[in-house]
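Protocol step 4 of 5: obtain the predicted structure for the target chain.
Materials: sequence only (see below). No template structures provided, no constraints applied. The aim of this step is simply to have a reference model before the mutagenesis design in step 5. Sequence pasted as it appears in the construct record:
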Amino acid sequence: MKKQKQTPAATLLRYCVGIDVGKDTLHLCVSDIDADGKVSVRGSRKFHNRVPTFESIQAWCAKHCKDNSLPVRYLMESTGVYHEQIAWHLFRADRQVSVVLPNKAKYYLRSLGHKSKNDARGLAQMGLEQNLQLWQPLSKQIYTLRMLTRQHQRLQEYGRLVKTTFILRYLQSQPLRRRIHAQLNKGEQLHALRAWLWFGGDGHLRRKQEEAQQETAGCLNVLTNLVVVWNTVYTQEVLKAHQEAGHEVDENDRRATPFEHLSPARFAHINRLGRYTFQPAERFTTDGLRPLRS
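Step 4 output (structure tokens):
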């Protein structure tokens, strides 16, 4: 019987490593293509998507790409930020890297009737059958700007988390709501005092010069501080008079005397208009204060 002649194997043209990128894992598939257009799978494996494992990935790929004279292309999808570390590592190692959009790879494999669930194998076939553009990394300035943008987004998300936690505490705790409302009332009283003192010009800045506007605002601050100091000093004198009269005054006892609710921004007892008179010096006490009202 005559021996059948063995058909010589077609010449290999190139290799391609398809990388299916996930957040924590990398699925790799090494395939080659010959002169007849036949695609063959040489091996597949799963690695952790971490920088320390990238060297072992290159060693594994070199093991399956035995012909060192043939070009090797690494193809992966653009998956947010998870592909950037492996792409940068391969680029620094002078490897040919291509990055495609997920929709482009999806529609290309669908047009070929590719039904395999292994995306890495499909990417390897795509890299062998298509002439894809090499990936070029962003400049360091743009990459830094992107990192800052992502950091800003994470800070915004953290801020929303803190805000949500505070709202839940606010709705759950009645003492917290009381303290917040008390502080808000103090702030509103201070704004009301400023508006009450600013009766000239109907409470509006009439001057166009910046220095004049700052002067008006500064004078308003001085008047506000004078009223606050006046109320604080005489409130302390009232407390001292109660103590001297034999009444027990405990500033730390919130149930007996709510000192934390006392505001120094009261103004009903202050005359901002009308006739101003100055009492003789002998009518003041030794410390320069006027006698308390009975």
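Step 4 remarks: Strands lie at 12-21, 25-34, 39-48, 72-77, 96-100. Residues 138 and 144 are 10 Å apart (CA to CA).
Proceed to step 5.
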